[in-house]
Amino acid sequence: MNIRIERAKNLKEKPEGALGFGKNFTDHMFVMDWSRDKGWYDERIIPYGPMVIDPVAMVLHYAQETFEGLKAYMGKDDNVYLFRPEMNARRFANSNRRMCMPEVPEDMFIEAISEIVKVEKSWIPTGEGESLYIRPFMYANQSGLGVDEADSYRFMIVLCPVGAYYPQGVNPVKIYVEDELTRTTVGGTGFVKCGGNYAGSLAGQVKAQKLGYTQVLWLDGVHRKYVEEVGSMNAMFLVNDTVITAPIEGTVLAGVTRDSIISLLKSWGYKVEERKIEIDELIEKGKSGELKEAWGTGTAAVISPIGELFYKGDKVEINDFETGELTKKLYDTLTGIQWGNIEDKYNWRKIVK
Amino acid sequence: MNIRIERAKNLKEKPEGALGFGKNFTDHMFVMDWSRDKGWYDERIIPYGPMVIDPVAMVLHYAQETFEGLKAYMGKDDNVYLFRPEMNARRFANSNRRMCMPEVPEDMFIEAISEIVKVEKSWIPTGEGESLYIRPFMYANQSGLGVDEADSYRFMIVLCPVGAYYPQGVNPVKIYVEDELTRTTVGGTGFVKCGGNYAGSLAGQVKAQKLGYTQVLWLDGVHRKYVEEVGSMNAMFLVNDTVITAPIEGTVLAGVTRDSIISLLKSWGYKVEERKIEIDELIEKGKSGELKEAWGTGTAAVISPIGELFYKGDKVEINDFETGELTKKLYDTLTGIQWGNIEDKYNWRKIVK
């Protein structure tokens, strides 16, 4: 790629105090356009700022849009690190295939991320648990109201310094098991990061929050009994000494954190079952005390302990609403690797060169 | 409402020849903003043109977006007519409730449409089958990457003169029955007009078109056997002397054309069954000759005859791939009422005052 760089004339003040998630954006952004004739063209890093969009840009009507999420970490060696960016590149290509959108080749995807991160190196925060969140995204910007593949798309990357995703930190959260609304089925879009999944699941999240729960646990859309995702995270359950998590079979997102956690667990000798588990079984195991720990995994929050499940009137507390030992160890190990405080046996960290 | 009108300084040339669908837009558009503090505010009719959007406007990432579609017709009495706009107003409110978006009150919705249509009266085409397509739509324009209800939304209306939706006209189309990809389930968003539904179903449409079919017929996402929608239209089947169509039970869009057609059919003495019908049964009825006619209904195309169904290797031709008598009568009657050539017994037409 031949990336043109146009530097911002006035740089923003860096935010101070708690960073939150997705609130402050850096001085520049990466933009690249695609047309059916030209393919990808005009790759550029330009000052972050508002864009022009037509009222009938197809994305505003038919939601052809996909995204990714990963983080850059400031190493103590003053190198900048990414965590398994090739996994995001592949998943993004998968998403775009399902949504009939052109793919961004893996090497271009990673090069674009590396270049914008280098330009914004001074924005990578260095406080405890802080990192630079990277949001690649793409949308149909062709004008027109016919429902069809678009002839033009825009791919962009924006960056924001982030602290912990949940303001509560790594404390356990209460989860509402949704039994009316559904998220997806095999054959749908549940396994891809497209906007429509998030828009559709918002009603469940809002309902859960109104009832005093932090997030919603989704059941499968066909039988309404198999456990799938929690909010926008993969969900894992330690039952006796086995960790159970939903399989990647077309409904659940193939989380990078999920995959990394499974590797860690296996290396520690845990049995990991990627299988369907019925909510009734899970609630039962909760009542009998066999459900020892539970947590959600995702790039933004890394690990989020689950302290309570509510399902059809049944309330189950997990590990006395304390963060479990294994949950804590997983969080410490994975963030330790990500921030460079623990040996990276798996070669997951990639230096941004 | 107190709508501010800012007239365009330079008016566009009206398009000549075949209008197509969703290609040419008029000189003005209606815009109104919503914030959690103020509610709806700054309702205005301004020159049609590009807008400014932030790269992290939530709609570009999480697809909180809904829309409607209806038409304005130029009467021979020089009055402008809408067709059952209150149905669109109600459905739009339904969509927004499901998507956790603020509602546009019914009277505001209709007033906004009426005002922009009056300003653009000269754009209403008068050729055979031509009308002014009205596209109200709404999206989350708050900046930020947290997944949550937005604090600000924009509601807009754009207009485009249209001819027939399908360039082939009211000729029968070949339909591919999709047996791998799914569209929705009860508890999902299938019954609302949100962008995500259209983005998710594009893969089915593209697949069907590659195989030589015009559109896809969706089966239910749970059992994968009950007939739901065809493309973005409701589907109806004349089996012997009974018309069968999928019920409005949470997966299928409550089409205004669907509802109107059902009223016409009942008034003519036809038995109408709003019920689940298995695709196997339908294919069987097609082979035995009991499936006399089939058609899709929607605002854009009005009625689109189905001449062939393809399902898992089985091909069924309907009415010798000719537009059926009843299909033709329905099309003529409904368009006759819409364009004011037939008595409007149901008081469906509303004069734009």
From TrEMBL, chains A, B:
<comment type="pathway">
    <text>Amino-acid biosynthesis; L-isoleucine biosynthesis; L-isoleucine from 2-oxobutanoate: step 4/4.</text>
</comment>
<dbReference type="InterPro" id="IPR033939">
    <property type="entry name" value="BCAT_family"/>
</dbReference>
<comment type="similarity">
    <text>Belongs to the class-IV pyridoxal-phosphate-dependent aminotransferase family.</text>
</comment>
<keyword id="KW-0032">Aminotransferase</keyword>
<dbReference type="InterPro" id="IPR043132">
    <property type="entry name" value="BCAT-like_C"/>
</dbReference>
<dbReference type="Pfam" id="PF01063">
    <property type="entry name" value="Aminotran_4"/>
</dbReference>
<keyword id="KW-0808">Transferase</keyword>
<dbReference type="InterPro" id="IPR036038">
    <property type="entry name" value="Aminotransferase-like"/>
</dbReference>
<dbReference type="InterPro" id="IPR043131">
    <property type="entry name" value="BCAT-like_N"/>
</dbReference>
<comment type="pathway">
    <text>Amino-acid biosynthesis; L-valine biosynthesis; L-valine from pyruvate: step 4/4.</text>
</comment>
<keyword id="KW-0028">Amino-acid biosynthesis</keyword>
<dbReference type="InterPro" id="IPR001544">
    <property type="entry name" value="Aminotrans_IV"/>
</dbReference>
<dbReference type="InterPro" id="IPR005786">
    <property type="entry name" value="B_amino_transII"/>
</dbReference>
<dbReference type="GO" id="GO:0004084">
    <property type="term" value="F:branched-chain-amino-acid transaminase activity"/>
</dbReference>
<keyword id="KW-0100">Branched-chain amino acid biosynthesis</keyword>
<protein>
    <recommendedName>
        <fullName>branched-chain-amino-acid transaminase</fullName>
        <ecNumber>2.6.1.42</ecNumber>
    </recommendedName>
</protein>
<keyword id="KW-0663">Pyridoxal phosphate</keyword>
